[in-house]
Write a structure and sequence with these properties.
The complex is a heterodimer of chains A (173) and B (311).
Chain A: E1 28-33, H1 39-49, E2 54-57, H2 64-73, E3 78-85, H3 86-98, E4 106-112, E5 116-120, E6 126-129, E7 136-138, E8 145-153, E9 158-163
Parallel strand pairs in A: 1-2, 1-3, 3-4, 5-9
Antiparallel strand pairs in A: 5-6, 7-8, 8-9
Chain B: E1 5-13, E2 19-26, E3 40-43, E4 50-53, E5 63-69, H1 77-82, E6 89-92, E7 107-113, H2 117-130, E8 134-139, H3 148-155, E9 159-162, H4 165-176, E10 183-188, H5 191-203, E11 211-214, E12 227-230, E13 236-239, H6 245-251, E14 269-274, E15 277-278, H7 286-291, E16 294-296, E17 301-302, E18 306-309
Parallel strand pairs in B: 7-8, 7-10, 8-9, 10-11, 12-18
Antiparallel strand pairs in B: 1-2, 1-6, 2-5, 3-4, 12-13, 14-16, 14-18, 15-17
Classes of the chains: A alpha/beta (173), B alpha/beta (311).
Chain lengths: 173, 311
């Protein structure tokens, strides 16, 4: 049983697709967009922020290199706005936080939350799964059956997964 | 309640008109508790206790130093400090921090107004000692600038000094418009001064998480509307205009923990069972205020005519 999601480390946008408005409190902006479904959001954000210039990136990889390039010259007032499927935005948000960006400098929109990344605490591999919070999935690496726990690591950008029946002793009796 | 520290006044500096710098050492000569830069101590004055920022860097201190602006019309704390002599005993509570430097910050912009230089000087000393990148803007009234020589010696050309509002406002805006993304802003000064700094920063896109304030003074609050406080045992207390909830509770014989009696220290927090508080303190965060489930009873009152509290 999971507690109410707002009492956990799982952001609401990681549970259901969610598109917040553009952050009008910033002065300069970069948008990192993943996938076709993000284009509608990009257009809405760019329109809302006009006439402020917005750098729009469509990263082919994780977007970390694009973010680092913008970050190198960014001044306080800059906002990073991420939009795309959950796995991509969680990964790039983790990178942005690790680089010292604050939560109130990052806007995250999800176009899809059907796939989530789960880190196996036993072998440290990540499994991308359709299993929801409180359900189980098989670790792609060690094969253990993992419970998808109601915790998202901010700096790892993954859900926590651990062996669902770890407390059951199955050794020699 | 924390253990009190017995101090004794070892030096007094009255060089700047209206500002007294006290050096305090432990009465038994021991090293004093370390503190985080930007901390304050609560001194037990005659009347309500008062909080004063420590100006040292906080590492292995053998003395605590505070600088106090005399406020003739204040509650009496500053007048008491200005009446002390070398050798007088002073009782303090251990240092407390509500204005710590963000150590991950790539750069630290310090902005002081008047006697607000005191916690900022502590930040500056620490930044210089540990090699953090720092710059300081210090606005003060001509002839009333405390710690000017120390600031100049510590910061060199990283400090800029202002005695007129226009050049300060221009330099502040130019400075805040061009800071690397990891920078943090720290400001202390009169409420109107800090409001202006926050307004400038916000207009330039600074997010709240990069702006840090130390409130040292409380503007005079209006006497407020009368209301009734309902206690856990069902008693109903009248809180007339001009009387604080804390005073009403004390009048009813309740022993409420309290220190500063001006909405700063956080001691007198009371749980609210029903009714909406009118928050007037500087202690609770915006979230805590919005939750409306507690209030600082020394300054805060009721939005309506009744407040049910858990006491």
């Amino acid at each position: 049983m999971s507690p109410p999601i707002e009492l956990t480390s799982v952001p609401s946008w990681a549970v259901a697709p969610s598109v917040p408005p553009a952050d009008l409190t910033g002065t300069t902006f970069s948008v990192f967009a993943f996938g076709d479904a993000a284009e509608q959001v990009v257009d809405a954000w760019v329109g809302a922020l006009a006439p402020s210039p917005v750098a729009v990136h469509h990263p082919s990889g994780t977007g970390a290199a694009d973010l680092d390039a913008d970050l190198a010259t960014a001044r306080v007032g800059w906002r990073a706005m991420l939009v795309g499927p959950l796995v991509e935005v969680l990964t790039l948000r983790a990178h942005a936080l690790a680089k010292g960006l604050a939560d109130d400098e990052i806007v995250v929109a999800t176009t899809s939350t059907s796939l989530r990344p789960v880190r196996c605490v036993h072998c440290a591999a990540d499994t991308v799964t359709t299993a929801g919070i409180g359900e189980t999935t098989t670790c792609v690496c060690c094969g253990l059956e993992l419970l998808v726990y109601h915790h998202v690591s901010r700096l790892q950008g993954v859900f926590l997964g651990f062996q669902v029946d770890a407390e059951r002793w199955e050794g020699p009796t | 309640m924390s253990d009190r520290i017995r101090l004794v006044v070892t030096a007094i500096d009255d060089d700047v008109p209206g500002i007294r710098t006290l050096t305090l050492a432990a009465a038994d000569g021991r090293v004093l508790p370390d503190f985080t830069p930007g901390s304050h101590v609560v001194l037990e004055c005659d009347g309500p206790a008062n909080a004063y920022s420590l100006t040292g860097d906080g590492t292995m201190p053998t003395t605590y130093s505070v600088s106090v602006l005399e406020v003739p019309a204040g509650a009496g704390g500053s007048r008491w400090v200005h009446g002390l002599a070398v050798g007088d005993p002073v009782i303090a509570l251990p240092p407390r921090s509500m204005f710590a430097p963000i150590l991950q910050g790539s750069r630290h912009v310090l902005v002081a107004g008047g006697i607000g230089i005191t916690p900022i000087l502590s930040h500056l000393r620490s930044a210089v000692r540990w090699g953090r990148e720092v710059e300081l803007l210090y606005a003060y009234r001509d002839g009333r600038g405390a710690h000017l020589d120390e600031v100049k010696e510590l910061a060199g050309d990283r400090a800029r000094f202002f005695t007129d509002r226009t050049s300060f406002a221009e330099s502040l805006a130019a400075t805040l418009a061009d800071q690397p993304i990891g920078a943090h802003l720290y400001t202390c000064g009169p409420a109107g001064f800090m409001d202006a700094v926050v307004e400038t920063a916000t207009a330039l896109g600074w997010p709240p998480s990069r702006i840090h304030l130390e409130h040292f003074g409380v503007e005079a609050l209006d006497p407020g509307e009368p209301f009734q406080a309902v206690l856990a045992d069902g008693r109903v207390l009248d809180v007339p205009s001009g009387v604080s909830l804390l005073e009403a509770l004390e009048g009813a014989g309740l022993d409420v923990p309290q220190l500063c009696r001006q909405g700063v220290c956080g001691e007198c927090r009371v749980t609210v069972r029903s009714g909406v508080p009118l928050h007037r303190d500087l202690f609770l965060s915006a979230e805590a205020k919005a939750a409306n489930d507690s209030l600082m009873c020394c300054v805060s009152r009721a939005e309506g005519d009744r407040l049910e509290i858990d006491l």
